Hints:
The chain folds into two domains: 5-63, DNA polymerase, domain 1 (Orthogonal Bundle), CATH 1.10.150.530; 68-325, Aldolase class I (TIM Barrel, Alpha-Beta Barrel). Helix content is 32%, strand content 21%. It is built from eleven helices and 14 strands.
Amino acid sequence: MNYMEDLRSKNFEEIVEIGNKFGLAPFKARELYRSIHGKGKESLSEITTLQLGERSKLAKQFEIETPKPLQIKKGNRTIKAAFELKDGKIVEAVLMEYEEERKTVCVSSQAGCPIGCLFCATGRGGFRRNLTPGEIVSQVYFFAKMHQITNLVFMGMGEPFLNYNNVLSAAKNLNNDLGLNIAARKIVLSTIGIPAGINRLAREPGQYRLAWSLVSPFDRDRRQLVPYRSLPSIPNVVEAIGDYQAKTNRRITIEYVVLRGINDRMKDIKEIIAISRHLDCHINLIPYNETIPGKFENGNIEKMYSELRNVHLKVTVRQSLGGDVQGACGQLSAKLCGTESRPPRR
Ligand code: SF4
C-alpha cells in the first residue's frame, strides 16, 4: 500500500527537513509551513508559491489530510462540526463566541475517550483511538476559515494527557507565529488529572494553561463517577499540580461539573475548599448538560458559588454555550443519524 504522510502533522523543524531533502530553498520551506498551518491549505496543488515540479515531487510522498466536515449545526453563538477522519471515525469540535472579540474552539484530542465519565456522552461511547496532530489542528483550521480564533480549549472528546505528544505537537503548530499564532496562555489543556502529563507540561517552555476536572472532592465518589481503572487519587493529582506550580508559577483552573445531590452537598463544598487551599487555583463551576435523560440533574450552582465566595476563593460559573446543538460540555458523542463511524473514505 502506498502510505502517504500527512503534512499537517509535521512541525516547523520537520517541514524544514523535508524542504532540505526535496531541494527547496529555505524561504520555500517556510512558505510551505505557512501555507499548511497559517493559511489552512488543503492540498499541495493550492500552494502556488512552490513550482509545479516541486509540488509534484512532494505529492509522491506527502498529502495534506483534511477531515471531511459531515455535519455542521449552528446554534446561539456556537457552531458544532462533526468531522469524518480518514478511517471513518468521527470526532466533533465546537466554536463558541463568548464575546465579539473572543472566539474559542473546543477541540477533541481522541476519537472517543477511555476515561468513561458517567455523565459524559463521549465517555459512554468508549475509546476508538488517539488523534494525530494533523487531525487535531484540522478542527481548528475549519473554524479559522470563518473567524479569527483567539482561544482553544482541549475539552472536547478525549483525555489530552493520554495523547500527550500529539496534543502538544498540535498546540505548538497552532501557537507558531507562521501558523494561527494563538497565544500559548490562551490554550487550555483540561485533564481528569494524569500526573505524568501534568509533570511533562510543567517542563514545556510555552505557557499553556492547565485545567483539572475534579468531578468530586472525595476519591470514593470520584471513582464511581469516573470509572477509569488507572484514575489517580486526589492527593496524587494535588501533588503533581503543586510541583507544576512550583516550576511554572501559573494558576490552574479547577473545573467542576455540578450534579444535584451527588457532588453539590455541604460536605463536598467543605472538601473542595480544603483541596483548593493547597493550590493557586480558580474554580469554574460548570452546569450539567443533560446527556442521559433522568440520570443526573444540574446541581445547586448558586449555593456552591456563594459558599466558595464566602471563603474568598476565586470562583466563576461557566457560561454554558452549545446546549442547543448538543455541543455543550459533556455532550459530544460523534453520533450522526445513529451511527458512530463509517467505512474508510479510501
Ligand atoms: S468528561 Fe472528558 S475525560 Fe470524562 S469521558 Fe468525557 S471526554 Fe473523557
